[in-house]
Amino acid sequence: PPLEEQKRIVAKLDILFAKIDKAIALHQKNCEEADIFMASVLNDVFVELEEKYEIKTVDEVSLNVRYGYTDSAKDKGNAVFIRITDINENGKFKDNFVYVDIEDKELERFKLYKGDILVARSGATAGKVALFDLDFVSVFASYLIRIQPNSEMDSSFFFYFCHSPKYWEQLNIIKVGGAQPNVNATNLKEIKIATPPLQTQQKVVSYLDEVSQKMEKIKQIQKEKMQSLKAL
After folding, report:
1. How distant, in Å, are the alpha carbons of 17, 64, 74, 153, 176 from that of 145?
2. pLDDT at 67
3. Cβ distance 80 to 136 under 8 Å?
4. Which residue, 195, 153, 204, is CA-closest to 45?
5. 3-state per-residue secondary structure call for 152-193
6. Beta pairing, strands 98-100 & 62-67
7. How much helix, strand and coil, in percent to the nearest 5, is found in the chain?
8. 181-to-14, 120, 135 alpha-carbon distances in Å
9. Tell me: the pLDDT tens digits for 115-144?
10. Nearest Cα to 153, choosing from 56, 70, 84, 25?
11. How far out from the chain centre does Cα 170 lie?
């Protein structure tokens, strides 16, 4: 088209692209606000629990706290090998697993059971937490620490605590190292958590599940809209 028509089209597209960019930024902000809201809810819950119930250390509410198994990952083996990279930012597991061949004696020491808590030991992910809920025979790698809650601690309650500001405040104090901070099992055992009766813990979990599901639904809608805008 003539030069003036080209300029008119460019000006119009510039305006449209600016509107799309602004809309994408707003949807991204909504996702961030959902995360901030969830963190606020977690903080309120665990602050209130600390005021009402006995506070214990991780060591006191655990059967054991242990470092993982050292070996090289393989395409095939007798156990799924859970590594830091298999855990996403929400503490859920990805599905592109690798394997390891492990003797029965070692398997007994490092086998994961539903309800086990896994904590990343080092680097940018230090302190990141996952709740093991897979049906596969699995062991955990050496850069993870396994916490097995005892009978007075609900695993999901513990998992939510480990996503709360109360957990991260303590974790940031116990981290050691400079550019690549890490968490060790000895210090992790000293982190303190409120321990209400099991029935109260389960009620808290039900409430937090409901809030979390709503926030994840909001984020999913925002992400879908962002993808549509990017495609546009």
Report:
1. 47, 10, 21, 18, 15
2. 93
3. yes
4. 204
5. CCCHHHHHHHCCCHHHHHHHHHHCECCCCCECCHHHHCCCEE
6. unpaired
7. 50, 20, 30
8. 45, 11, 32
9. 999 999 887 788 889 999 988 899 999 999
10. 56
11. 17
Q: Structure tokens of 203?
A: 């009620």
Q: Which residues pair with 200 in a beta bridge?
A: none
Query: Rounded to an integer, what distance in angstroms lies between the CA atom of residue 26 and that of residue 85?
Result: 30
Pairing mode of beta strands 55-57, 98-100 = unpaired
* Amino acid in position 181: P
Ramachandran angles phi, psi of 143, nearest 5°:
-90, 15
Q: Give Cα separations from 55 to 88, 196, 229 (angstroms).
A: 29, 9, 48
State residue 85's pLDDT score.
Answer: 85
pLDDT, tens only, 157-206: 999 999 999 999 999 888 877 667 888 899 999 999 999 999 999 999 99
Model pTM score: 0.86
d(CA 211, CA 209): 6
- C-beta separation of 131 from 91 below 8 A: yes
- Token readout for 32 is 């961030």
- d(Cα 112, Cα 92) in Å, to the nearest integer? 15
pLDDT (tens digit per residue) in 56-101: 999 999 999 999 999 888 888 899 999 888 888 777 887 788 999 9
Rounded Cα gap, residues 56 and 44, in angstroms: 19
Q: Average of pLDDT values for 101-125?
A: 90
Query: Which residues are 57's β-sheet partners?
Result: 192
Phi, psi of 134, deg, nearest 5? -90, 160
